[in-house]
Design goal:
The structure is a homodimer.
Chain A: H1 2-14, E1 25-43, H2 49-69, H3 84-88, E2 92-100, H4 108-113, E3 122-126, E4 137-143, H5 146-158, E5 161-163, E6 173-185, E7 191-197, H6 205-217, E8 222-226, H7 242-247, H8 257-270, E9 273-277, E10 295-296, H9 303-306, E11 314-315, H10 320-336, E12 341-345, H11 351-355, H12 358-366, H13 371-388, E13 392-396, E14 412-415, H14 422-427, E15 431-434, H15 437-440, H16 466-470, E16 486-493, H17 503-507, H18 519-529, H19 540-556, H20 567-570
Parallel strand pairs in A: 1-2, 2-4, 7-8, 7-16, 8-9, 12-13, 13-14, 14-15, 15-16
Antiparallel strand pairs in A: 1-6, 3-4, 3-6, 5-6, 10-11
Amino acid sequence: MLFSALLILSLHVTRAAALWPRPRSLSTGSSFIRLGDSFEVVAEQGELAKELERRLAKAIARTSRHLQHDRLRRLTPDRGESDRPQVENAPILSRLFLSLNSTVVGTLEDEVVNLYTLDESYSLSVPAATDATSPTASAHLSARTLVGLLRGLETFTQLIYFLPAADDALDGLRYIANVPLRIEDRPAFPYRGFMLDTARNWYPIEDILRTLDTMASTKVNTFHWHITDQQSFPLEIPTFPDLATFGAYSADRIYSTVDVAKVVEYGQDLGIAVMLEVDMPGHTASIANAYPEHIACLDARPWSTYAAEPPAGQLRLGRPDTLAFSKRVLQDAAKLSSSAFFSSGGDEVNKRCYLDDPETSAALESRNSTVDELLDEFVRGLHETLVESNKTPVVWEELVLKHDLSLAKETVVMVWIDSANVRAVADKGHRIIHAASHYFYLDCGAGAWLGRYANGTSWCDPFKTWSKSYSFDPLFNLTREQHELVLGGEALLWSEQAGPETLDSIAWRVWLVLPRSPRAAAAAEVFWTGGSVTEGERSVGEALPRLHDWRYRAVQRGVKAIPLQPHWCALRPGQCDVEL
Amino acid sequence: MLFSALLILSLHVTRAAALWPRPRSLSTGSSFIRLGDSFEVVAEQGELAKELERRLAKAIARTSRHLQHDRLRRLTPDRGESDRPQVENAPILSRLFLSLNSTVVGTLEDEVVNLYTLDESYSLSVPAATDATSPTASAHLSARTLVGLLRGLETFTQLIYFLPAADDALDGLRYIANVPLRIEDRPAFPYRGFMLDTARNWYPIEDILRTLDTMASTKVNTFHWHITDQQSFPLEIPTFPDLATFGAYSADRIYSTVDVAKVVEYGQDLGIAVMLEVDMPGHTASIANAYPEHIACLDARPWSTYAAEPPAGQLRLGRPDTLAFSKRVLQDAAKLSSSAFFSSGGDEVNKRCYLDDPETSAALESRNSTVDELLDEFVRGLHETLVESNKTPVVWEELVLKHDLSLAKETVVMVWIDSANVRAVADKGHRIIHAASHYFYLDCGAGAWLGRYANGTSWCDPFKTWSKSYSFDPLFNLTREQHELVLGGEALLWSEQAGPETLDSIAWRVWLVLPRSPRAAAAAEVFWTGGSVTEGERSVGEALPRLHDWRYRAVQRGVKAIPLQPHWCALRPGQCDVEL
């Protein structure tokens, strides 16, 4: 007991603010302030107030729900009981004022479309005490965009701790420690994403919406929706409804245009853009359920000769009506998504599939072309359509590295095979989204999923721990001039061994945004806060207590995030550290 | 589409019965039978019927709920649609008759106490067609014990597939394929367990009860409840209520005697014994919150010198009142548990902790004893109490191997460090429970959980895949005479990185009983069905489709078991196999 008391003292100092991601600038005091019973979030009076109120009504309602339902007690052995005397006697915080410091108030829709050039910064201040002339005090949040305000509101909710009422009254005390407090915050990188594969196994819309909530809680701004793949095609394409009718796992496992619109709108309210990916020309065997004429080497055996995983099948190259079909699919899909980016995929294209396909090999011969030349023509055709649809094309790294396609400089490249390849992509002048499998693949570490493979290991073993994700350096090995090519990064959940049953626990291990556990949350901090572990700007030891706070709060919000340590350790920062 | 049709034909042959664990003997036909709308489970008329009805009322109600709520369609590309014509025209199965072929009808309570010497066998037959004199047919389940009937009822529910009604009527069709069907089944090993650590992180009672349901669905018969540890002491000990009051994480994270009784009773209804473990003398730092006088080297630093994980602290040896206290704790705990076995733990006892503890080192000197001699005296004292309480003592392997204690031959030994140690334990004549960390530790593979340990690996990496668990050979390296010493085995979930949020998804990967996924289910089959992979009696390829069936059914019953493969593969056995 003595031992616990000693510990609390030090915690008050070290755990000033358990924010995730860490703000770029934070100053704190040592006083307490308590939220009044009628605490409210209000827009400042002024000419923008009405517009603000309308636009921010949902965000304010969401913030109020969090303030109401989050009942996170301090993660200390006494769960904050020693705060009680100070909290009970603390001055009252009666409101949070919001102000938008911009003469141009755009719509949230516009802001989400322009997210990667948008100012997401915000300032937040919480005073220490009431001034003499007023019985209560106000906190202030200001930003230059609506999205900036959303980011700041999330930070504000993470400041609040809870103590149950001593007399068993209906409700407890909500308070902020370490006031006065001032935060100046802005992201290090504009693109901070979470990718979910909904084709290997299917996820209900409600699981996706809950995931967006968790993303927002870590300031991740892009839902990269890998919506189709070789095993199933669950996306409704209005021009070709048979694609989903015959390509989805079943009639109740289709994302209709209404469903996608629901996700897009939900994202908009949270300042999250939805970037769809319709992977082409590989990973498309499921298209053959409705349109077999477009697919080469369908279900060819042995599958491992023709595809990275079963079943084999790729869109035919050098066949004009297949290109026209593929362009039309992308045109329809582009209309459904809100991000300015759209991914046409392009990973794991198998050459042998085309060489052994009679139709494609005839085209190769008659045109005296190589597979890569036909691939170049195909991808440039797809991108023409995307540009016409006002989308910036995004591709997986192989298209520019392995196949050396002549894609427009504007094309954004996702590097997944090895982050060592980032430099080569930058040398070609492309902008980069980090998606390194050895840091950010949330599904790795469960061994092989292929059948008849006792003791089988997987190429992507081992499990990527949160501290591994957290140690990623986004600017490693790039020249100073290349730094601006890094748009950000994402955590990725491929679904061969994941599904709605395990979404929360697998994704939310540490990336700052995602679902099995805080892993996705770790990635979120890397790309919001920036800095590197090796240069001492980021420390796993400093991060862990904050991550515990984030995780306990996420669990209260209904996210089944995995525990990172025994509860005993979560209450005692540093005491479960390794001794080197 | 053509391709799918071809596949279905072969599935009808290969997936005769998707039972998990696989019965010891199974014969099937090729007809269908459909469950009537008023299908019922009834005890056969006779002198035992009344007794049976009373005892089995709950089991029958549970079976009826499963029959009602399980809506598992065949795992084929057409989800069983091609069965429809045969199902619609199939004869009607109107009831399942139960009979108990024993002149001695015991109570379920007695049977659970005597589980490891009990006859759990059963016979189940489902006819192909009605006979000429009766419009409907009956299935028959018989056993020599109530527990045997419970095992058979679970098997029966796993035979049923569902097809939605073609005309959107209120309910669908339930049917059994491959009748006539006859099963003769009995376990290969009497002890089939699942261990849950509720001390590192705490689990609500409802999560434990749901876990018991899942255990029952794979015929696992023992809930090994590792209920206390160094981080917290959540068990109410009536004689020493302060142990939980000060040792639990909080007042709402205590298992009261009423809570434990609820788990015991729920287990009894399912034929599951609850084996409590109060680990001693190591893993007891949490006792110091109430009784610091009994704990040596409490929170000594660096912790890694004194304990396997923080915080350090062990029950003092050579101190009479500490032994008396410990015996009294076990005496109280023994009364709460239903298994004939009780574990006093004994793993990871740290010698340095005692040598550096002034009080213990004084005792060592004054008695001219070694630590192992005092340990021997302590453990034998504990076991004396357990035997007086009608419990067979169970210990971790170190006590007989590393410390070479002179424990009674009756003492059961759990081998966890390495299954290679099983032989040495058998050579000492002890009975064995397999708990091999490299096969059955469900929590491994998530990397280190200690803080400030970037990229840290864990001793128990990598993740144990279901096929790894499934490849375990319980009799490996033992002499023919030693085979009878193997009581069985268990899957284990330690909770440093697990909690109620992830229980289902972590445990139920493949052991036939447990929660993140079917991993616990894999262990269940190993110890029910027996056989070895190397000798060809067990095959990962044969098992996978059955495990998919089990997993899809478990999800329908509310268990969030992780997907083992893309849904596409689950519907197409063999097509996602590795090509060697």
